[in-house]
Amino acid sequence: MRALFIVNPQATTTTPRSRDVIVGAIARDVDLRVAQTEYRDHARELARGAAAEGYELVISLGGDGTVNEVVNGLLATPEGLSRPSYAALPGGSANVFIRALGLPADPIEATGAMLESLRSGYGREVGLGRIVSDVDDRYFTFCAGFGWDAEVVHEVERQRRRGRRASPALYVGIAFQKFLKGDIRLPSLRIDAPGHDSVHDLHFAIVTNTTPWTYAGSVPVQPTPRSRFDLGLDVFAMTQLNAVNTSRLLRQMLSHKGVPPYGRGYVGWHDQSSLTIESRRPRAFQIDGEYLGHRKRVNFQSVPKALRIIG
């Protein structure tokens, strides 16, 4: 088997030595080519060309941003070519998609699990989410967000460009700052989905393809605990944004059960094939922890069995 190994050299939880160990282990089982990313969306370009170059498997080492780029590249495989399978190894600070798949958070252990699956022929198909707007046509693996969480992602990206290291503490600190000083308290969002009445005046909304939405260190944060890769999309949106209500919901999200199916201060929809979120004014928007800019309207679609995963 020929495999393309896409490595983000800026991955925060690996070292050159550990990457060499991983490459050596994989190369014993497959005909491996290693390519390091050099700029934003480079992983997407490499993955898109993998099928034409005869690769049957694409492996990545990086965070959720690298995963998102590779997935979008694979989903853009030219018609008539066989799309390679995908194996993702953790190299970022959160690795939400990889951990949601049930894979180890340690890159060496994840490599071992991936190789065991490869030798046994085990693979699985997972569904993805797709966003379409005036400027977007992209897939996401685990979540998309309008408002508060996207503003946090945007600020974290700015801090990282200044040399700060992404960490749970940084995310939590910025989220608290935005809650106190940001414009997230202004309700501007509306959600429409088939079979549901429109919901207006929402403060922020997230759309998930699996659970958890994110992690607070090792603790999963679950606003949509019934969300699964083999189902449609789930939605969580807040109708109230105050200290008491937000604290109560956060405590529930951090419990092993997540938030209940319904409750005061929020709405939640399960297993949706499509939906639309609109805002009266442009709001920050993110997918898979990557800030895409400000948007006023985004259409969401569930794409079942979109990708074959090894591991």
UniProtKB/TrEMBL annotation:
Stated EC number for the protein is 2.7.1.-
Enzyme class, spelled out: transferase
* Cofactor requirements of the protein: Mg(2+)
Q: Does the keyword NAD apply?
A: no
Q: Which Pfam families match?
A: DAGK_cat (PF00781)
Annotated DAGKc domain ranges read 1-135
Per UniProt, the keywords (alphabetical) are: Kinase, Transferase
SMART domains found in the cross-reference section:
DAGKc
What Gene Ontology molecular-function terms does this entry list? kinase activity
Domain of life, source organism: Bacteria
Similarity section: Belongs to the diacylglycerol/lipid kinase family.
The identity of this protein, by name, is: Diacylglycerol/lipid kinase family protein
Q: What organism does the record attribute this protein to? A: Nocardiopsis mangrovi
